[in-house]
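Standup notes
- DV: blocked on the single-chain target, sequence here:
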Amino acid sequence: MEFCGHIFEGPYYDWGGLERRSGIYVVTDLDGGETFVVDVGAGRDVRRDIESHDRKGCWARVIQGVPCLYVRYMESLAEAYEIEQAIRREHTPPCGGE
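- DV (later): unblocked, structure below
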């Protein structure tokens, strides 16, 4: 899947398959054949970040279809944070903020 010109792996439906590596993730809602961005984040350990995320409650309230996740593993956290902000600006996800 492509977000803001960057290719992401996925969709992942089981968070347990994620790697413990730095990168960026996009939480989406697959509903009626369309994919909606629900949240986006970046961090040093994508799997840990998703498993313990403080906005999971928001995801559960917002997602109407199938929750799925896309990931782009990256060594540079600075670049990951730049891409995160670009996706936020383009998609205005309902969970999370600046």
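- Follow-up: The first strand starts at residue 2 and ends at 3.
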